[in-house]
Amino acid sequence: VKYDEKVYAFYGQFSSAIKQFYLSLGLRTEISNIDMGTNTSNRITKKYTDFFPSGSLSYEFENGDYLSVNYARTINRPKVPQINPFISLSDERFQSVGNPNLNPYYNNYFELIYDKSFEKISIASAFFVSNAKDQFLSIIQNTGQNAEGQDIFERTYINSGNKNIVGIDADITYRPTKWLLLNTYVSPYKLQIKNTINNLYDYKSTVWYAQGSALLSLNNGFRFLANYYYQSPINDGLTKLNTINYANATISKSLLNKKAIIAFKIIDVFNSKWFNYQSFESNTYTLRKIRFDRQFILSFTYRFNQKRKSAKDRSSETNKDVLEDKQDEK
């Protein structure tokens, strides 16, 4: 199967500052050409042009507090398993197949952010609203019977349903000493899916997502980072996704006058990165146990022709490592 996707993007941005107000406006234009299929008589071609505006208006108070209103329109493109037309078998009666006609869907994201800093603690809080139409929906359908008269079921993906999310989050960073950095991120939000196929997959659910981390930096160049992730169960009339929780750990050492770093990372320290997915679709009960293998990663990094970073630069880099965008983890 041939799959060829070309995306041409153009981006412009305008920024302005008036006293303590900061304004930023952006517009990204994408021209996408998709060509896929097995031969000239069985091909799917798609061509579309999309516009993605973004904007931010912020105000910095005299005491250093920060208030910002942001908006952005984004795109979610199908992944390879979601469009791969070849059937994969978990057993002879349950099949999985992608949908080559699956289209990307678009998301409108709005957030109101307030940041406040103290001597050792910084707090970033936000209220956010997100909505999308024709999201990716995973469904199970009955495709007939085999030679023994047993039903055959197929899991595939379609564009169906509107996804609306309203929530708040709090990102708290505490540095009790210069060698220890603690971070907690909590985000409860209301998730609603509506207008799905025959309204079978419509539901409302309150979800709790949380993440915690601890970074220990020693004078001898050793650093230890531990992360913990948690997501509460998600339920609707047909499906149930159980709790997800796991922990990662990384230990690293600076070498060669801090030009090199050797690091060892364990993904899923306690071997708990697995969850159950239950559904009742096409008049059949399905229980899927999804498990990720524990991973061990050893890496060596050497920086060529780079100046040594100041303490301020190193602090900024450390915060970037730990305080990454939590929305991507959900």
Describe this structure in words.
- With 330 residues, this protein is mainly beta.
- 5% of the residues lie in helices and 67% in strands.
- It is built from 2 helices and 21 strands.
- Strand 11 (162-177) and strand 12 (180-194) form a beta hairpin.
- The longest helix has 12 residues, at 311-322.
User: Termini, distance in Å?
Assistant: 32 Å
Which secondary-structure class do the elements indicate?
mainly beta
Taking strands numbered 1, 2, ... along the chain, how are they ordered across the largest sheet? 1-2-3-4-7-8-11-12-13-14-17-18-21
| Count of helical stretches | 2
Q: Round the mean pLDDT to the nearest integer and report it.
A: 85
Strand content: over 45%
Counting DSSP E segments of at least 2 residues, the number of strands comes to 21
Biggest beta sheet attributes: 13 strands, antiparallel
How much is the radius of gyration in Å? 24 Å
* N to C succession of SSEs: EEEEHEEEEEEEEEEEEEEEEEH
User: Spans of 5+ residues with little confidence (pLDDT < 50)?
Assistant: 308-328
